[in-house]
Amino acid sequence: ELETLDALGLDYEVTIPDVDRLIALERQAIDELRLLRGIDWYTTYRTNAEFNSYFTELLGRFGPAGTENPGLLTTEIIGQSVEGRDITALRINPPGATANTRPAVFLNGGLHAREWVNHATTMYIAEELMTRYGSDPRVTNILDNLEFLIVPVSNPDGYEYAWQSGGTRLWRKNRRPNSGGSFGVDLNRNWDIFFAGPGADNIQSSDLYHGPSAFSEPETSALRDLHNSHPQVVAHIDIHSFSQLILWPWGYGFVSAPEPDNSLFISLGNAMSQAIQAKNGAFYTPQQSVDLYPASGTCSDWFYSQGAFSYTFELRDTGSFGFILPPEQIIPTAEENFEAILVMGDTFSQPISVAQIGQTPITLAPLTDTTVTFTATPTYGDLDPASPTLFYRVNGGAWQQTALGAVGPVYQAIIPGADCGDTVEYYAQFSTTDPIDVTFPTDISHAISITYADSQTTLVDNAESDAGWTVGLPGDTATTGLWELGDPVPTGAQPGSDHTPAPGTLCFVTGASGASLGSDDVDDGFTTLITPALDASASATTYLGGDPFVRYYRWYINNAGASPGADILDVDISNDNGATWTDLEAVGSSATDWIEATFRIADFVTPTDQIKLRFIAEDAGGGSIVEAAIDDLEIFFAGCDTPADPADLTTTGGDNGTPDGVVDLSDFSYYLARWSESAAVADVTTTGTSNGVPDTNIDLSDFSYYLGLWATATGG
Ligand code: 0X9
Ligand code: ZN
Question: Is the distance from the beta carbon of residue 312 to the nearest atom of ligand 1 less than 6 Å?
């Protein structure tokens, strides 16, 4: 096939030069590991028989008469495969007041036979939940609120077949003998949701064969029946590999889930991705399923059609080993995905999932009202429409409350403005009709906190002309998609226009031209963009005590092509004109939008007048689509002007009426002269009082009031 690609002049990358050899090495590694004594169960891949005996072992530890953490686990044979193998579900449901009434999280692994890390990861999640119950407060809370239904081996026949020797390792489907003599139905195309639509195949021998009818297969029917036997499955994950993806419905076509569901899919998908990345650094791209490719009749779409928030996970890796993932990656894969389960568990432990819309601003403008917006998505239970309330307080004072009003699908309230330097804290509260209260943030002792400050922009570079940027460096290795100043041509990965409002057209972009997805993106290495020196020194602003910030808008896509999510946009900051660099951010997640990035410079480097930013876009693995763009760079200062001293009237030694921040004898003589002339500036109080309120009558009380101000300012 390579010869064909070469002949056609198509760009390709060999990720695994010899899959057969990799399979042979895998078998050798498994056989060697098997000989070791006392190894962890997850150190190597396990057969059907080993899964079955491990189910029994887990029952011994966590079952009704368990030795380790009794009463958590029951197992259920939910059906038999085409070849008559038992399909086992683990039901984790601790005793206690809420036992048997909890909403459920449903996890299934191994629908596809060759995706071996799925079976192991699903099993690991079950074991870890049970091991930690009672000692880990987070897991305890999750299991006290949610039941887990877990099926680690959903396709035992296919799995058995993939373990046989002789070219069966990459088997995907079940082992249905089809009428035409071929074998297997794709168990992720056999569900009763857009059955036999796009992305499924009617050809029996195809890997994507959907089967003769929806739920024609006992394996999919067993999972369906387990779902249907539980009154409330609220969340679900169908666990696959590989590509490191977190996918949500719909997957059959280019239609988003309705709101507020879609917002929850996105925010929870992002949160799970972050939790995974925080564990071992592996990045899983969160995106809608159909953006991978349309597939109809899938497990996840069906669970969502039944009311569960359902995801499809694609576990490790991004293609270096693919399905033949080395056994030493089982545990890290399982561990990082357990973190996602914790996030999902936290979310569905509450009957309403609350999120704030929009980035929390760095500062608020003084004396200006602020509108805050939330979404509240019932995961189960019903929202009391009278309940949404915003609580806020200023400078740690008493909490005030105001209703969060429904505006379309969101809830909004206004926080009245406060003085520069004041700090406001706030949280939102929503209740179910039960009532159960849910707050955002969950822990109200960590309410959202923002300080009011003035800001002054001292530098704007909208990239409509080149202010002296360095576009590419001698050591850069990318062969296409080099940074340039241009008007981007839209592709599936590149923005259709710059960020500056019209008439702006230009931005810095990794190859502005190239009309198709993979043309003129970053390939074969990295390309570097550096700003000119930016003045963020204190002298750049009139704001006393002002704090410099840098802001830019970025576009970044790395989620298409052969190795989605593998690359990053690395951003660094320098305060010595580029001699040394400090990490500012590493962008790993893709967004088909311009995203604001704002940083307080002092959090990274001491502000100087030699600040530079460096943007390195890289296609490290090859084979992926990488597009980056930068626009609308700004430096601004936030802080509060120290209020002018009312006794400061003139510049030292001058009679110019221009305050200079110093109160001395010349201010006094300036006042005396104006007072003698009955000039308006001398009117500083109401006759007979020292209230500081001018009354258009200038007399002795004004003089004594000013004298008092001056004496205070000068210390006598
Ligand atoms: O194609 C599948 O069934 C899943 N990928 S896998 O490589 N594990 O076979 C992904 C299905 C996700 N859904 C859609 N893309 N619609
Ligand atoms: Zn799969």
Answer: yes
